[in-house]
Amino acid sequence: MNNYFYISVNVxxxxxxxxxxxxxxxxxxxxxxxxPVEGKANHALLCLISQYFNLPRSSIEIVKGVxxxxxxxxxxxxxxxxxxGPDGQ
Length: 89
Fold this sequence. Notes:
- The chain is of the alpha+beta class.
- It has a single domain (4-76), classed as YggU-like (Conserved Hypothetical Protein Mth637, Chain: A, 2-Layer Sandwich).
- Helix content is 16%, strand content 35%.
- It is built from one helix and five strands; from the N terminus they run E-E-E-H-E-E.
- It has one helix at 40-53, and strands spanning 4-13, 19-22, 28-32, 60-64, 70-76.
- It has a five-stranded mixed sheet, covered by helices on one side.
């Protein structure tokens, strides 16, 4: 089984504080203090996600949307929800 999964993230750069919120539609909304200049907001986003999941920064990668507020993020070293039910069956 693959040891990674993808999340869809909507980023708000230039926020007052760094934070993440899970939206009802399954996407993640991220606020980062950094401005979208020279990749600083992207770097801040990847650091924020790595702290949230307690994974090394190198295991988080932007797959799509490097120059957009909507991004597809690949997280390695963490498994997404399984197809089994909550009791494992």
